[in-house]
Write a structure and sequence with these properties.
The complex is a heterotrimer of chains A (326), B (130) and C (307).
Chain A: H1 2-48, H2 54-57, H3 63-71, H4 75-94, H5 97-101, H6 107-136, H7 138-144, H8 159-178, H9 181-203, E1 211-216, E2 228-235, E3 241-242, E4 249-250, E5 253-254, H10 274-280, E6 284-290, H11 295-323
Antiparallel strand pairs in A: 1-6, 2-3, 2-6, 4-5
Helix pairs in contact in A: 1-6, 1-7, 4-6, 4-8, 4-9, 6-8, 6-11, 8-9, 8-11
Chain B: H1 14-28, H2 40-47, H3 51-63, E1 67-70, E2 74-77, H4 88-106, H5 110-129
Antiparallel strand pairs in B: 1-2
Helix pairs in contact in B: 1-3
Chain C: E1 12-23, E2 26-37, E3 41-45, H1 52-60, E4 67-72, H2 81-86, E5 87-90, H3 102-112, H4 118-127, H5 141-154, E6 159-163, H6 171-186, E7 191-196, H7 199-205, E8 208-213, E9 216-222, H8 223-229, E10 230-236, H9 241-246, E11 248-254, E12 258-264, E13 275-278, H10 281-289, H11 295-300
Parallel strand pairs in C: 3-7, 3-8, 5-6, 6-7
Antiparallel strand pairs in C: 1-2, 1-4, 8-9, 10-12, 10-13, 11-12
Helix pairs in contact in C: 4-5, 5-6
Classes of the chains: A alpha+beta (326), B mainly alpha (130), C alpha/beta (307).
């Protein structure tokens, strides 16, 4: 059965291997360049004691490659689309599944071997791409400290493997449910996007209770490392949120919410006087965030969620194929 | 070696067609005593008929004593069916042509002539059994 | 039970009792009771929609019945390598991978089946001059059917179930296909059920018949025996109740002067008024199929019955 799976999909396998090889070469070359660029910049700024500004002045690599790396967000979806969905759907649509089933292969064995190799391929490919991107992003992560943020979090570490498993399982399940290739493709794509979006926006911030720190306006607090900021703002003395400062502001408090002691003259803002400062002391700033130390915990939790979803989908696929009349 | 032809549209059942073709071949000298008949598989491959049909035909021929089956070797011709003396066919053929001409002159068409022949054959069978 | 012949248990390839299959509100097969002895080539005849494909899929274990029971190759059909190894099923839509060659399929078969005779496939295809290296999708319909048949036979099944395998084939391809089939049965150890809506093919290569109409089994038995049991009686128009009482009248046609009956004899017919003649397989099939015909059709067979 393994031979048949390989023989049927060897073209896709070769293409995937070629693409991976191309990506490897690209990222290796540019990654090494970026690393050396970063280290020389570090050496230079250490000499002139201007490293604090490095993050905003140094741009590593090229825009094109950077864009390409961001696009690896979509890689897991490709598995579901080009491999998972068409596999089961087209076998059921054209009836070729009957070839194997009538060659002394039980449906259980057919599904186990086929799905097994497909999921393994998805995990391996997803892992390889993720590994490459994680390594490649090393200098950038050290510089920008933004790997916990959505968009960066999703393309590094172990979560891409979880997404790939999920996409593949979703494709297989859609194929088994709908039995037609095009509808299965559409459902897989839509399902993948919706689930990823929902989890990233609504679930991820709450995996672990966020930490909130309030501080005096004059001594703002910034968490260390690559933390993930969820919310930030200013509270007035009554504890209510002050609207964000879009224009003129003193220490983050916009003109419209300033206490009377800080009334600004028509000619513009002046540095706050002692009365104003005293009034502002009643204001507080706050930041709600996930500490950098929780990065790997979040990676693990999100991977677990997608792996569990993949498991459920495979179970549903098995039930559908083994119980229903095909 | 003899090759069989089975006509699916004929009123004669397939196994009987095979029996008749074997007897015909023996009469004409195509098959002789000691010759091997085609195997069941060879007949089936050539005519696409059911193997049991061929078996039935060969069993019939064996019962009539014309062939014998030797286990592991095949089916072989044993006897020739008793036939008319040489020259009989041509003699009877000529007298039949004369009869047909006479019947045609009398106004009989083909069907009527065939009908007469069938009646005569049946009458002869009934006479034999009587 | 119509037309079921008693056969000793040991020699049956297929035995079903009251087999039924319902899909929601549609009954695809109803109370099918059949017996197919081993070594037969059985014709599964019936109009489209009569339940032929459903019956074959039930026997192959591809579908589960909603009622009744069945024994196939001595066991109950299920997803089990031992059972699957003994069954060969060829669906109407010849399930081959279009982009793979025949040689690829042969190699796949070697990997998938415990018992595989790849040499026989190559020999059969070579004898038919079918190339094994080209993608199967580039072959003609007849050639694809031959490839599929050769592959199905190579796993050495005990029972072969074919769903309208020759429907789309030209006469020569059809002949070749049936010849290979008959040859495989002649080699021994194989029973075949072959569905078709052409009676001519059945007459030539089959020795057993299962007739389905309106999702029910109308006839099941050896062809020779069934033909011997049925006869056509033609005679002047008169009272036929005696005949109808003693024998089973399958079809009755009346004209103002004449009555024609197709009966299943229960002993010899002794009525000098009737001319007795043999019935052909086609007439028999048509007569049994007409039993469930819609009312307008039935009326047509009683022309001038107004008296």
């Amino acid at each position: 059965m393994t031979w048949l799976v390989w023989r049927l999909h060897r073209t896709q396998l070769y293409i995937a291997a070629a693409l991976l090889a191309a990506l490897t070469v690209l990222l290796l070359v540019t990654g090494l360049q970026m690393a050396s660029q970063y280290h020389s910049a570090l050496a230079a700024c250490a000499a002139s004691h201007s490293c604090a500004n490095l993050a905003s002045t140094l741009f590593l690599g090229s825009h094109a490659v950077g864009f390409g790396v961001i696009m690896t967000l979509g890689v897991p979806a490709l598995f579901g689309l080009f491999w998972g969905a068409p596999l089961v759907a087209s076998e059921l649509e054209t009836g070729t599944s009957q070839f194997a089933w009538m060659q002394t292969v039980t449906r259980k064995h057919w599904l186990a071997v086929t799905a097994g190799w497909m999921l393994l391929a998805a995990a391996a490919w997803g892992g390889a791409v993720s590994g490459l991107v994680t390594w490649w992003s090393g200098p950038d992560n050290a510089l920008q400290l933004d790997q916990f943020k959505p968009g960066r979090f999703d393309i590094m570490g172990i979560v891409p493997v979880g997404y790939a498993l999920f996409a593949m399982a979703l494709g297989l399940c859609a194929g088994a449910l709908l039995r037609r290739t095009l509808p299965a493709l559409a459902v897989t794509l839509a399902g993948f996007i919706v689930v990823r979006a929902v989890i990233t926006v609504w679930l991820r911030p709450h995996y672990l209770s966020a930490v909130t720190v309030t501080y005096k306006l004059f001594s703002p607090f910034t968490p260390t490392g690559s933390y993930w900021q969820l919310a930030q703002g200013v509270l007035n003395p009554a504890g209510r949120l002050v609207p964000a400062a879009n224009g003129l502001a003193i220490d983050g408090v916009p003109v419209g919410s300033l206490p009377s002691a800080c009334a600004a003259p028509a000619s513009g803002l002046q540095p706050p006087g002692p009365a104003c400062r005293q009034a502002l002391a009643a204001f507080h700033g706050f930041i709600t965030y996930q500490p950098a130390s929780r990065y790997w915990a979040f990676q693990g939790i999100e991977f677990g969620i997608f792996a569990a979803l993949a498991t459920v989908l495979i179970a549903v696929t098995a039930v559908m194929l083994l119980r229903r009349d095909v | 070696m003899i090759s069989f032809r089975v006509d699916g549209r004929s009123v004669v059942p397939p196994y009987l067609q095979i029996v008749q073709q074997v007897k015909q071949a023996l009469r004409m000298g195509v098959l002789d005593v000691g010759d091997k008949l085609p195997t069941v598989r060879e007949v089936v491959a050539a005519t696409a008929i059911n193997p049991n049909t061929v078996l039935k035909a060969y069993r019939d021929l064996e019962r009539d004593g014309l062939v014998e089956a030797r286990a592991g070797h095949g089916t072989f011709v044993r006897h020739r069916p008793p036939g008319p003396p040489p020259g009989t066919h041509s003699r009877l053929g000529r007298s039949l042509i004369r009869w047909v001409a006479e019947a045609r002159e009398a106004g009989l068409d083909d069907e009527s002539m065939e009908s007469l022949l069938r009646v005569a054959l049946r009458a002869e069978t009934e006479e034999e059994t009587a | 039970m119509i037309g079921v012949q008693a056969v000793p248990e040991a020699a049956t390839a297929i035995r079903t009792i009251g087999l039924s299959k319902r899909y929601h509100r549609v009954t695809a097969l109803s109370e099918a009771t059949i017996t197919v002895p081993e070594g037969r080539i059985s014709a599964l005849i019936g109009p489209n929609g009569a339940g032929k494909t459903t019956l074959l899929r039930l026997l192959a274990g591809l579908t589960r019945p909603t009622g009744g029971e069945m024994t196939v190759n001595g066991g109950i059909p299920r997803q089990d390598p031992a059972f699957l190894a003994g069954i060969g099923f060829l669906a109407q839509e010849v399930p081959l991978y279009r982009r793979l060659s025949a040689e690829d399929h042969i190699r796949a078969g070697a990997h998938l089946n415990p018992c595989w005779d790849g040499v026989s496939v190559r020999e059969r295809l070579a004898a038919l001059a079918i190339p094994v290296d080209r993608a199967v999708g580039t072959l003609s319909g007849g050639q694809r059917a031959q490839v599929a048949l050769a592959l199905t036979l190579a796993k050495r099944p005990r029972l072969l179930l074919l769903d309208e395998p020759v429907a789309a084939l030209d006469p020569l391809a059809r002949r070749n296909f049936l010849a290979i089939l008959a040859d495989a049965v002649a080699a021994g150890g194989l029973t075949v059920v072959l569905s078709s809506h052409l009676v001519a093919d059945a007459e030539r290569v089959c020795d057993h018949i299962i007739m389905l109409a309106a999702s029910r089994v109308q006839l099941c038995g050896d062809i020779d025996t069934l033909l011997a049991e049925h006869q056509i009686l033609v005679g002047p128009r008169k009272d036929t109740s005696a005949i109808e009482r003693d024998h089973r009248v399958v079809q009755l046609t009346r004209t103002p002067r004449q009555v024609t009956m197709l009966v299943r004899r229960n002993g010899p017919v002794i009525d000098p008024a009737f001319a007795v003649s043999d019935v052909s397989l086609e007439e028999l099939v048509l007569a049994y199929m007409g039993q469930d015909a819609p009312p307008t059709l039935a009326r047509l067979t009683s022309i001038g019955d107004s008296e």
